[in-house]
Design brief:
Elements lengths: L21 E2 L5 E2 L1 E5 L28 H15 L3 E5 L9 H9 L6 E6 L4 H11 L3 E5 L5 H8 L4 H14 L4 E5 L10 H11 L2 E5 L18 H9 L4 E3 L10 E9 L5 E7 L12 E4 L4 E3 L8 E2 L1 H5 L4 H13 L19 H4 L2
Parallel strand pairs: 3-4, 3-12, 4-5, 5-6, 6-7, 7-8, 8-11
Antiparallel strand pairs: 1-2, 9-10, 10-11, 12-13, 13-14
């Protein structure tokens, strides 16, 4: 169930900052923290950034490992966060990643720990990350065709990604999930092929509608392959049944794939994240922390709340927690992509974190 993108009237406000979890004005509670560890990336995907890359954050602006851990600790121990996902840019290029994961895994209560990556270097880091406490991994992969992969990412690295996926399974990072974006005239025909690849290897596939988060601000809804179109293509190749498991706050609608099991022997699933055409804003349970210490209460937020300045200015844990609560209290009802007043965020996805 989704709430409208713009509420007709202001609802009653949640409790004022000072104690408790991350609650917004609409009663949604944020328990899932996405932590961007860097805005840098070693791919140049055409729908994300230009071939020459982007102006990266100055090193001094990026949170240190200790600062990242402190904010994660506050989120878990003071604000009720139960899941932490490390993102980028590309998080595998963050030098202190393994140690950050290890420290997060030692927190009590222990949060579930995951990672979203493009897979480059995962063959080398999958086992150290698992031993440090990482639970699972999501790998972005939009095609299994070598030529298409090179054209899409501007890098000839598909074999490295496939090796990383295999290493993740071998290290026990399960389920291994694949995130795929389909674009009209580019790879829209690959839904069945990607699904069969995932089923063959025991991976869980998630298709994600392309969102207006590119650095070029060139997103065009007409080039987006919709959730409905993806499901039509999948149903032409396999038999899908409704997933009896409650979706909860998860962004993906999932279906069971008849006749297949995953790497753990459970019924195979495929998911579709219809961020644009099937928004799930009403059930959103996410809060985001950028690599330079800004809280984003929505992926499409046009405003941020600065924790880095307070942190470096000597704020104690209680003050930082209060600032975080205040940031989440201001969250809007929905992303508003279909509203005529919608403005694409200034920061692209690579600088926000997935």
């Amino acid at each position: 169930m989704s709430v409208p993108d713009r509420p007709a009237a202001d609802p009653p406000r949640a409790a004022a900052p000072g104690a408790g979890p991350l609650v917004d004005r609409y009663g949604r509670v944020a328990t899932d923290l996405r932590v961007s560890l860097t805005d840098r990336c070693n791919l140049r995907c055409t729908y994300c950034m230009p071939a020459e890359g982007l102006p990266w954050l100055p090193r001094a602006d990026v949170l240190t490992d200790d600062e990242v851990f402190r904010l994660v600790r506050i989120a878990v121990q003071r604000l009720g966060v139960t899941e932490v996902r490390f993102t980028g840019g590309e998080p595998l290029i963050r030098p202190g990643l393994v140690e950050i994961v290890r420290r997060a895994g030692e927190l009590r209560p222990r949060p579930a720990l995951s990672l979203t990556t493009n897979g480059l270097g995962l063959d080398r880091l999958a086992r150290p990350l698992r031993e440090a406490g990482l639970d699972r991994v999501n790998v972005s992969l939009d095609t299994v065709d070598p030529d298409r992969y090179t054209a899409l990412t501007r890098r000839n690295r598909l074999p490295d990604v496939l090796a990383g996926l295999a290493a993740a399974t071998g290290a026990g990072l399960r389920p291994v999930k694949i995130n795929s974006v389909l674009m009209r005239g580019v790879n829209e025909d690959e839904a069945p092929r990607l699904l069969h690849f995932a089923l063959q290897h025991g991976y869980q596939l998630r298709f994600i509608e392309q969102m207006p988060l590119d650095a070029q601000h060139g997103w065009d809804r007409r080039t987006m392959v919709t959730a409905g179109e993806i499901l039509t293509a999948l149903r032409a190749a396999v038999t899908l049944r409704p997933d009896p498991v409650d979706r909860g706050g998860a962004p993906a609608e999932t279906w069971l794939v008849d006749g297949y099991v995953d790497a753990a022997g459970r019924p195979a699933r495929v998911g579709v994240i219809g961020s644009v055409t099937r928004p799930f804003c009403g059930d959103c349970d996410r809060t985001r922390l950028t690599a330079d210490g800004q809280v984003r209460n929505c992926l499409f937020a046009t405003e941020e709340s600065d924790l880095r300045a307070a942190l470096r200015g000597g704020a104690d844990d209680a003050e930082l927690a209060d600032r975080w609560r205040a940031a989440m209290l201001a969250k809007r009802a929905g992303h508003g992509i279909d509203d005529p007043s919608f403005l694409q965020p200034v920061r692209p996805m690579s600088a926000i974190g997935g």
